[in-house]
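Here is the promised in-class demo. Please do not try to memorize the tokens; focus on the logic of going from shape to residues.
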């Protein structure tokens, strides 16, 4: 690995030795080298490219590497903050910039990485989605159960199992244990860059989750069990995708999203996103009294704080129900006067 690194640094130094190196030129070479190494997933490489093209190059691309100072990077962070990006997104962007600049240091093109002491103001992250009302959830459920289509099943997996849409699209029948009542989440659909000339810019690729916590078992609820048993009879192949086209290939995530939007339109519900099904699952689970640690594990979160701050919504009905407990205590303390 050390030999490979030295060769990389030497080739970079030689390539740029007599040039005024801009961030754009160096970052493109950096991403090319990372791709050639073949040590990171194609989906990760696509994400790196997206960060470089969308965030780094528009603001810093024309700057020479030796003019990108701590002050320049700090001002860049402020620009990102004004765009209302959340803290984790900004950290990811600066993390990529830091990796690029660190490689420039190793190649002898700059003396110091300017990203070392950057301050990113932490924003208090609260819920970013919304949940279906009880009435809307009932209407949606009745519609799904009345329309037998595997895309309807995809929506049920979001609503009754809290699965991510990328996990639903990659689900295979061998991942579903109907006898013991569990769904095993082992893979997801990732959108990666298409290197075929003249073809679509991106394509779907089945991959594995990045986080160990994302590999998990989800108990199957009774309402979902009935639907899964009904659809399972239509296929006998364990390798088959649960949410499959007639030819057997997996549906594109965007097709599932469009189907969901169509249902929402037909039922004249609020403008919910597919991901709001996951928020709804988490909130209903908490309202039912489920332990927060269990909810977090079912959702595949790295820590319960993510579940609490982003996915759990306190509804007016839940607040009212909890306030009854205070009323009961007050009646004990104050008697009828309460």
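The designed amino acids, position by position:
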């Amino acid at each position: 690995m050390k030999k490979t690194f030295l060769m990389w640094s030497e080739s970079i130094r030689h390539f740029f030795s007599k040039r005024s190196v801009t961030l754009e030129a160096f970052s493109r070479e950096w991403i090319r080298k990372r791709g050639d190494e073949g040590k990171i997933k194609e989906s990760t490489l696509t994400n790196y490219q997206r960060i470089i093209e969308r965030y780094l190059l528009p603001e810093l691309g024309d700057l020479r590497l030796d003019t990108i100072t701590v002050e320049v990077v700090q001002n860049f962070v402020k620009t990102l903050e004004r765009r209302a990006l959340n803290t984790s997104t900004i950290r990811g962007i600066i993390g990529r910039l830091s990796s690029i600049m660190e490689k420039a240091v190793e190649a002898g093109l700059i003396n110091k990485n300017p990203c070392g002491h950057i301050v990113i103001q932490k924003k208090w992250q609260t819920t970013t989605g919304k949940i279906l009302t009880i009435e809307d959830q009932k209407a949606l459920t009745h519609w799904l159960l009345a329309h037998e289509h595997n895309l309807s099943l995809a929506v049920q997996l979001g609503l009754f199992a809290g699965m991510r849409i990328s996990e639903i699209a990659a689900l295979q029948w061998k991942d579903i244990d109907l006898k013991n009542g569990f769904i095993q989440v082992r893979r997801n659909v990732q959108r990666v860059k298409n290197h075929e000339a003249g073809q679509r810019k991106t394509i779907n690729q089945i991959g594995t989750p990045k986080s160990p916590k994302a590999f998990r078992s989800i108990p199957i609820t009774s309402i979902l069990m009935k639907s899964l048993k009904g659809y399972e009879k239509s296929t006998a192949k364990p390798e088959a995708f649960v949410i499959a086209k007639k030819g057997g290939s997996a549906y594109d995530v965007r097709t599932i999203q469009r189907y969901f939007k169509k249902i929402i339109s037909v039922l004249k519900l609020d403008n919910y996103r597919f991901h709001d099904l996951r928020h709804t699952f988490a909130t209903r689970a908490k309202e039912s009294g489920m332990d927060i640690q269990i909810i977090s594990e079912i959702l595949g979160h790295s820590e319960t704080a993510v579940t609490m701050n982003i996915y759990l919504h306190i509804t007016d009905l839940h607040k009212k129900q909890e306030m009854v407990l205070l009323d009961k205590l007050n009646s004990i303390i104050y008697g009828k006067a309460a």
